Amino acid sequence: MLAAERQAKITEMIKSRGSVQVEDLAQELKVSAMTIRRDLVKLQEEGKVERCHGGAVAKKEVNYAKKQTSHRNVKEQLASKCASFVSEGDTIFLDAGTTTYEIAKRIKEIPGILIVTNDLEIARLFMDSEVEVFVCGGRVQKETGSMFDRYASGLLADFKFDIGFFGAASINEAYEVTTPTVEKMWIKRETPKQCEKAYLVVDHSKFDRQAMVRVNHLKDYTAVVTDYKFCEEELEELRQMGTVIIRGQN
Predict the structure, then answer these.
(1) Would the pLDDT of 173 be above 80?
(2) Residues in Cβ contact with 201 at an 8 Å cutoff, skipping those fewer than 6 apart
(3) Which runs of consecutive H residues, i.e. helices, occur in 114-149?
(4) Which end of the chain is more exposed for a tag (fewer CB within 10 A), N or C?
(5) Which residues lie closer than 8 Å to 62 by C-beta, 6 or more apart?
(6) Residues in domain HTH deoR-type (predicted)?
(7) What dotted CATH number matches 3-58?
């Protein structure tokens, strides 16, 4: 079995069982414990699992409160840049997340806008405003206050948006957007296609990381709003791909 195949198998085993022990994996996959430890190190670096004493556990979502405090100043600056793209009367999709929540705070007084979101915290923010709000129905992921299942996808399929703002869990070295769960992939992949302008809004911490499921590519957005500092070689590569980068930090 090739290393990539073995690591994919380990990821599936951890996902289905919740946790695994190094010795058990070594025995089942007929390799040394040292090989398994190396596999787990690589899988953790890719954001697919979390290592623990003697083994690994399934990757867990970070709860909303922790996300709000992580890189908050940067998220606020990115949000301010994005808010400047919104015009009176726009129909807007706001993806679930704390950066898009910051965008919501900055656009709630713009007249005539309509918001569609799969984030309960964002919807709650607009309760004391004049903004019309649609919330995607379906199962609530309590850790993040978001909805991503087929019911949410079904509602979104009927909308066309003037502008959409999207977050990401991670972006790998090939400039692919990835997410930890299959459920999140569909909305994040399909909804940008329904936007006249779609912006990926991500801080520097999301780059050079990999999650389990591919969503799309940076070139699939109108632009990427970020504080990440690309080198000149990377910027030229992105330009050739048709990717537009907007600096979102002063």
Answers:
(1) yes
(2) 78, 79, 82, 99, 100, 103, 165, 166, 167, 224, 225, 226, 248
(3) 120-125
(4) C
(5) 70, 143, 144
(6) 3-58
(7) 1.10.10.10
Q: Are 190 and 216 in contact (CB under 8 A)?
A: no
Q: How far is CA 66 from CA 48, 62, 69, 107, 223, in A?
A: 19, 7, 5, 23, 27
Q: Where are the domains of the chain?
A: 3-58, 65-247
Distance, in Å, from the CA atom of 230 to the CA atom of 236, rounded to the nearest integer, reads 10
Domain 65-247 CATH class label: alpha beta
Residue 194 CA to residue 210 CA, distance in Å, equals: 26
Q: Check whether 132 has a pLDDT greater than 60.
A: yes
* Burial environment of residue 233 by CB neighbours within 10 A (0 to 12, 13 to 18, 19 or more): exposed
What are the beta bridge partners of residue 132? 114
Task: Give the neighbor-by-neighbor strand order of the sheet with 213-217.
Answer: 170-171, 176-179, 213-217
Please state the pTM of the whole predicted model.
0.74
